[in-house]
Specification:
The structure is a homodimer of 318-residue chains.
Chain A lengths: L1 H12 L1 E2 L2 E2 L2 E6 L12 E6 L5 H8 L5 E4 L5 H6 L1 H21 L7 E7 L22 H18 L4 E7 L1 E2 L12 H11 L4 E3 L6 E5 L1 H13 L2 H4 L4 E3 L3 E4 H17 L2 E3 L3 H7 L9 H5 L8 H11 L1 H7 L1
Chain lengths: 318, 318
């Protein structure tokens, strides 16, 4: 989803890190959507990043910037340990190794979408930039490991990596995925589209959010930062909005009224709560703010971004 | 070296975590030394832990406690990136996977020797238990990754892991190895044995130390802690002595006089200083102290441990 929005934005801008984009190469396990009306060359490929030859072939084109967003989501990585490690860790390592093997002159910027799931309790009141990564999910573990690899490969000059720890992206458009965090979006999206949503956790669950639009902005900013700006620590916690499920519901009420809120059905799910309870609710992402990364100001703004960017599309499709 | 001392101690005690030891199985890439006079069954094996079949065969004996100390040292992991990742990361993962595959009823305590090299600058005045792992060496990166795997595999019930972040072990007996930290020991050991030692860094370099005897104590303590005592975070920074190279030299002067100190030859090595400068000098290892891990009180005590445990052996061999 973020990849599709990023491709649309790149196709529209035609510029990345101050340079004209000559080619956009989109790779996914399913056929990637081709951004409409792109004024630049777009190549789409269906490929399994778990295959070394495939990864080598992708790197052979020597892109200047690689956005690595592919992942098995949290719920699935928890349910299928082998698949999670294979896709989230091994395939990422294959990519880093393929880039290294294409060197030593080839040192692309590699932007890796990490996650705040690299953190685990107990948490301080607000998690600072030098807090330990102590994940309590396999997904968070795999992300934290790739962050370490990316920093080491960067230090050694094999590539020029940046890992951005994304907040939970909200409001996600489209249909629910297997992420345990899916309800954070569906309790806004589904009621706004006239459908019922299930809420599996209590109202006081606090979490850290940013919109898909903000996430695309993070990725673009990560692509343009210089090595001097970044320094040696290449994993950055992204800014976001600290909000409870209750705050979400209030924001929904303000834009769509009681009728929309009534479409949220409370159905406690201890398995989901167990995962979500290991996730942090508030950060102090000083480095990212200093480096110019920007998220929304409050949850109301996050809902407005959905109304502007995605609800029209959803309405047109309905 | 630590493995050999641990084996000697286990053979002498005959007890681990409150239970009689029935068998001691020693595995290394070179033929392990058989502890003399052991009153229990000792099996020694020469094996390459990078081979999956070998690792499976080792696990087939279903030891109750596995001490995983094998590693390519820091200097070598920096010089040979592939070997470092193969031995320090991939072989460790093979071991964890082999234990997982032998389950689900088999859930041994796995004690992994990690290192303070998982930390990288900038450092606070004293590094606390929830400080981030941001290594600036490949060795530290590999150790940090195995810590993450160990915690996740423990959480999932595949094994029962504890990673202990060892201080720099000092005074190391015997001959220098390829570790960049080797001089911290050799400037004490060599003069005490009437030989010259090379000091490649300035006197004000501060570092975090514990004796080999303390390290063996850490490993034994890590083997006996209960899951309740340990909680979810299975990587523990060990206590140690914060001392400068100057403090080391003073301790040497006190036990062996000016003549011994004169055997230290200053020969600045920017490559070694570059690595050592990324290492921390002071910790606040509260959790480990609460859990009963104990190091020496000062560097003088570290020198005394060498005089008691190792100098007689070195003298006998000379």
């Amino acid at each position: 989803m973020i990849g599709r929005k990023l491709a649309l934005r790149l196709a529209a801008d035609g510029v990345l890190a101050g340079r004209a984009v000559s080619q956009l190469s989109l790779v996914d396990v399913v056929e990637p959507a081709r951004p409409a009306g792109a004024g630049l060359e777009v190549v789409t490929r269906t490929a399994d990043l778990c295959d070394p030859d495939t990864v080598r072939a992708l790197v052979a084109g020597r892109p200047d910037v690689v956005f690595h967003l592919a992942a098995v989501v949290s719920g699935e990585a928890e349910a299928d340990v082998d698949k999670g490690y294979r896709v989230n860790l091994d395939a990422s390592r294959l990519l880093l190794e393929a880039i290294r093997a294409a060197g030593p002159e080839y040192v692309p910027r590699v932007v890796f979408s990490s996650s705040i799931a690299v953190f685990g309790p107990p948490f301080p009141e607000a998690i600072g930039d030098d807090h330990c990564t102590a994940p309590l999910t396999s997904y968070g573990t795999q992300k934290a490991i790739v962050e370490l690899l990316l920093s080491d490969y960067t230090r050694r000059g094999f590539l020029d990596g940046v890992a951005i720890r994304l907040p939970t992206i909200c409001v996600r458009p489209g249909t629910p995925n297997l992420a345990a965090s899916g309800f954070f979006s569906s309790i806004i999206r589904e009621p706004l589209n006239g459908r019922e949503a299930v809420l599996p956790v209590p109202d006081d669950v606090r979490h850290w959010f940013a919109s898909p639009r903000a996430a695309v902005g993070f990725l673009l900013r990560a692509a343009e930062l210089t090595a001097e700006e970044l320094g040696a620590r290449r994993a950055l916690t992204m800014p976001g909005v600290s909000a409870t499920v209750g705050d979400e519901i209030e924001a929904l009420r303000r834009v769509a009224g009681e009728e929309a809120v009534a479409r949220i059905r409370r159905e406690p799910d201890p398995a989901i709560l167990r995962i979500v309870d290991t996730w942090p609710g508030r950060f102090d992402p000083r480095r990212a703010l200093e480096l110019g990364f920007r998220a929304e100001a409050d949850f109301g703004e996050i809902v407005r971004v959905y109304l502007e960017d995605d609800l029209p599309v959803a309405a047109a499709g309905a």
